[in-house]
Amino acid sequence: MSLLPDFAMEDEFKTKIVTSSKKDKAQSSFGFFQRSRNAIMGAADAVRRVAAKGGFGDDNRRTEALTTSIDGMIWTGGANGLLLQWDPNGNRLQDFQYLPFAVQCLCTFGSQIWVGYMNGIVQVLDLEGNLLGGWVAHSSPVIKMAVGAGYIFTLANHGGIRGWNVTSPGPLDSILCKELAGKEFLYTRMENLKILAGTWNVGQGRASHDALISWLGSAASDVGIVVVGLQEVEMGAGFLAMSAAKETVGLEGSAVGHWWLDMIGKILDDGSTFERVGSRQLAGLLIAVWVRKNLKDYVGDVDVAAVPCGFGRAIGNKGAVGLRVRVYDRIMCFVNCHFAAHLEAVNRRNADFDHVYRTMTFCRPSNLCSAAAGTMPFLLLSCVLACSMYLLWLVYRSGLPLVLYIAAGASSVVQMLRSTNPLSGLTVEGVPELSEADMVIFLGDFNYRLDGITYDEARDFISQRCFDWLRERDQLRAEMEAGNVFQGMREADIKFPPTYKFEKHLAGLAAYDSGEKKRVPAWCDRILYRDSRSDLASECSLECPVASSILRYEACMDVTDSDHKPVRCIFSVDIARVDESVRRQEFGDIMTSNEKVKIILEDLCRIPETIVSTNNIIIQNQDTSILRVTNKCGKKDAFYQINCEGQSTVKDDGQASDRHPRGSFGFPRWLEVTPATGMIKPDRTAEMSVHHEDFQTLEEFVDGVPQNWWCEDTRDQEVVLVLKVRGRYSTETRNHRIRVRHCFSAKTKREDHKPNESAQIPGNVLPRSDYQRLSSSFDVVDQLRNLHSP
Predict the structure, then answer these.
(1) Fewer Cβ atoms within 10 A, N terminus or C terminus of the chain?
(2) In 3-state terms, what secondary structure has residue 489?
(3) To which H or E segment does residue 391 belong?
(4) pLDDT digits (tens, 9 = 90+) for 160-206
C-alpha cells in the first residue's frame, strides 16, 4: 500500500523515544502510536479485501434491463440511469438520462416506453426518447412491469403491485383526478398517533437503568412510535478510523451500540409491547426506532442512511444518521445529528446541516459491487486518517511545524478523493430525499451556543429561570430566523434550562461546568420538525396529509450520567390516509358511468381499420413474398405484431393436418418474417417480407418420415400467421390470419444409374433444383417416399 509510511523512519524515531528523558510521555506516545499503527493496518486490510472483490471497478455502466420497441429498436437501461437506443444491428443510436438512479426494468406498449427505477419512480418516454411524464409509483425499487387489461402493472421490491392506465400520461388524467377529488370524503380516513423522540449526548458513557426510565420509560406508556438518537456512543481516533472502514464493508454498529439498543429495548419491553423496526450507527452516532405492536401492520418500507461530516465529510465523529419509515402510507424521516462544536463555529454548523439535508439518501445500492465502488474514497480516507494520526505524532516528536503538515495533509486528502472517486464530477440537479417526506424530525446535539453572554450571567438567568432572555442569545434561533439553517422547520417553546455543560454525577443546576474552561451553558440538544403544513392554520387532509402538534418538550434534568442532559419531545400526529379499496371502487364507477370518460376512452382505444394484400402465400426454397398491410384510418396510427399461431403438415391430398400450436409464438426455422412488429401511419401501407430460409438437402428417414439435418419433418408444411393490429392505447386487437405454405417435397423426374430405367416421380410436385444423388439405392428411397407412414 503506497499510503503506508516508511517504517524505517519509525525505527529511527523509536530510538529517540528510548533515549528521551521523559520516559513516561514516551511510553504514552508509543501506546498511541501502536493504536494508530493497528488502525492503519486494519483499514489497509479492508481496502485490500474490497479491492480483491472488484470494488474498485466502475460498475455504473452495467446493463440492468432490455426491451424491444414497436419500431424494432432495442432499448437498454443501465445502473447509472442511462437509457440507450440501439438499432437491430446493434449500433448505438442515442442515449438519454433523466434520473441518476439505476434502471431496474423496461416495458413497451404502443409508442410508449415505460421505465422503472431503483428509487420507485416510473417514467414514460416516446419512441424518440422524449420524456412524456413520470411519478413515484412505489417507495421501493420497481423490479418488473407487465401489460394487461388496459393497465401497466408495476411490481415493487417489497411485493406491492399497482396498475397504471395505459393512457397515462394523457387527456384522461385531469378528468379522473377531478372526479376522484370530488369523492375524496368517501375514501379518506383520519388516523392519530403519538411519537416520542428523544436525543442524548451520552459522552461515551453508559446510562443507568433509572436514567433510561426517567428519560424514556416514563413517557412511552401511550405513544405508538419511539425514536431515539444518541451521540458520542463511542469515540476515539482509532475507533473513528476503524468505523469508517467498517462502514464501507457493510458492518453496522459496535458492541457499545448494541448494548444501548438492548438496554433501551428492555426499558420499552421490546418484543411484547414494542418492536424495533430499524437502527443505524455511524461511529458515535446511533438512531433506532421502536413501533408499538398494534401499529406494526401499518408500518413498513424501513430504510436507513448515514452522512459523515467530520474530516473532509468522510469521518463520523460529526454527521448524521437517518431512518425513513412509511406509516399509514405516509413517509416519515427521523435524523439524528451531531454538528461542529465550539462557540465560533456557527457557519460550520450551518454547513453541516446543509450537507446532511442535501446528501442524505435512503436508496440502497443495487448490488454490493456498486456499493463498494461508491465507498472506496471513504475506505482510502480512513487509511489516510490513521496514517495522519501516526505522522502527526512523528511530527510532534520531531518538532516540525504542525500547521504546515496539516495544510499539506488536507490538500493531499482532497486530491486523493478526487482521483479515486468514480463518481467525482457527476452533478445531478435533484430534489433532496428529505424534502419529499411528509414529516421530518431532526434531533441531536446541534452544538449551537449562546452569544454575547458570560458564564456568570448565564448562571444567574438560569437560576431565576429567565429563559426568554437567554433564548434571545441562542445562535440556533438567530440562524433560523435569518433563514440560514433548518429552513421551514419549527421548534416548540423551550421551557427547560440549557442542557450543556454539566459535571457528571452531580445533581441540580449547580452542576454546570465549574472547571477551568467554565463553558457557557447552552441548549445544544434540540428537537425540530416539519410536517405537511405550510402554516399552522392548515387542517389535516389528503392535500396536507400530516399535521402535528407538540404535547411535551422537556429535558430530564435529574439524569447525571453525562455532561449533557437528555431531551424528549412527544408529538401528536394526525394522518390523512386513503382507503384504497374504496377509492378503487369509486375509480371503477367513474370509468364505467362517466359519459365523457367513456367517449374519450373509446376514441383512444379504437382500433384503426386495416386491410391485408393476401390471406394465402405459397413459397418454395429461398422464395420471398411481400405482404402489404394498409392503414385505412386517416387520423390514428396502427400498431401491428405478427405471430405464428401454429404449424401443420400437408397430406398427400393437399390438405393440411391438424395444426400444432407453437407455445412461444415464434416462427419455424425455415420461415423469416421481417419486420414482425411495427407502426403504420394513417393512410399508409407497410410491407413485410415473408422469406423461406435456406436449408440443407441431406435427408434421412426416421420412422418412415423424411427429415433434414435439423431433424425437422421435410414434408410440405403450412403455418398460420396472425397479424394483430391495435391502436395506440388499445389492448384489444383486430386479427388477420395469413396461411403460408412451403413445399419441401418438391420432386422431379430423375434418371437412374441403370440404363433404360427411370424412377417415376409424381407430377404434382415442384422440381427440386438442388437435389443431389446420394447413393445407389436411389430407387428404394424414392419408392419409400410414396408409402404412407404407419
Answers:
(1) C
(2) coil
(3) helix 376-398
(4) 899 898 888 877 888 888 888 889 999 999 999 999 999 999 998 99
Gap between the Cα atoms of 488 and 531, Å rounded: 9
710-767 residue pLDDT tens: 555 556 788 889 999 988 887 788 999 999 988 765 443 333 444 444 444 333 333 3
Residues in the chain: 790
> What cell numbers appear for 732 in the block?
384489444
**Of 410, 377, 389, nearest in space to 5 by CA:** 389
Q: Distance between CA atoms of 395 and 321, rounded to whole angstroms?
A: 34
- Cα gap 195→193, rounded to integer Å: 7
With beta carbons less than 8 A apart as the criterion, state whether 740 and 690 touch: yes
Return phi, psi of residue 117, to 5°: -110, 165
Would you call 749 exposed, middle or buried from its count of C-beta atoms within 10 A (0-12, 13-18, 19+)? exposed
Residue 551 belongs to what H/E stretch? strand 546-555
- Tell me the chain's radius of gyration from C-alpha atoms: 37
314: left (phi over 0), alpha (psi -120 to 50) or beta: alpha
Structure-block grid coordinates of residue 644: 405464428
The predicted-structure confidence for 485-503, as pLDDT tens digits, reads as follows 999 999 999 999 999 999 9
Query: pTM to 2 decimals?
Result: 0.67
The identity of residue 271, as a single letter, is G
Q: Hunting for cell 464501507 — which residue is that? A: 248
All cell numbers assigned to 566: 437528555
H/E element holding 596?
helix 595-604
Q: Which stretch of DSSP H or E encloses residue 180?
A: helix 171-182
| Long-range contacts (CB closer than 8 Å, 24 or more residues apart) made by 171-176 | 171/600, 171/604, 172/597, 172/600, 172/601, 172/604, 175/594, 175/596, 175/597, 175/600, 176/587, 176/590, 176/597
User: Residue 407 corresponds to which amino acid?
Assistant: A
Residues in a beta bridge with 680 = 638
- CA dist., res. 668 & res. 105, Å (int): 29
Residue 530 CA to residue 60 CA, distance in Å, equals: 35
Count of H-run helices and E-run strands, the chain: 18, 36
